[in-house]
Prior knowledge:
Blueprint: H1 2-8, H2 10-22, E1 26-28, H3 34-39, E2 43-46, H4 51-54, E3 63-67, H5 71-82, E4 86-89, H6 96-109, E5 113-117, H7 131-139, E6 143-150, E7 153-156, E8 163-166, E9 171-176, H8 188-205
Parallel strand pairs: 1-9, 2-5, 2-6, 3-4, 3-5
Antiparallel strand pairs: 6-9, 7-8
Amino acid sequence: MIRLIKIKILPYVIYILYRIYMMTVRYSEPAMPKEIKKSKKYIVAHFHQDELVLVKTRINSSFFVMTSTSTDGEMMTRFLSLLGYHCVRGSSTRGGSKALVEMIHTLKTSNYNAVLAVDGPRGPIYKVKKGALILAKQTGFPILPVGVEVSRAFHINSSWNKVIVPKPFSKVTIKFGDIIKVSANSSEDKIEEAAQKLETTLSELKGL
């Protein structure tokens, strides 16, 4: 019964509450980098902590996200689908390789882009995993690091990612880092180097 409620009812409740709640939050986002505007093909990379803040910025746009195969992942998938996102099920622990292959194929054969929480789904917090870098290598898409600055926020410290939720009538400032590219012939060392660069960039955007 609990699972049924989670996947059949809660996504709609969360969707309605989220849309109403986020109407009270003001967003400020800089212009897209010229290279991104020109190619219109890119991968948004962010820390998992910022996920709920960033969801609003890509509603009803051509973005694919990766969600976990758990019951909570199913709930999140349905919620994001209501917001206009396209979801691929998988994680670093279950179904990750299959989901990554599916996302690579989708990005290569469609007009979709991707957005990834690079330290998910279970952390450690602020530690970049290689999924986004592999995706960039296989598709040729540049990675756009994205961070947020929230004037007033709730911090859910009981979760591993210490989720940020903007307080009503707060202001969210979106920040872009320098674009990161991973060439098709990149070695494992180069991918590791790019992952470290992405981690440093995202940490700087958050002021860590």
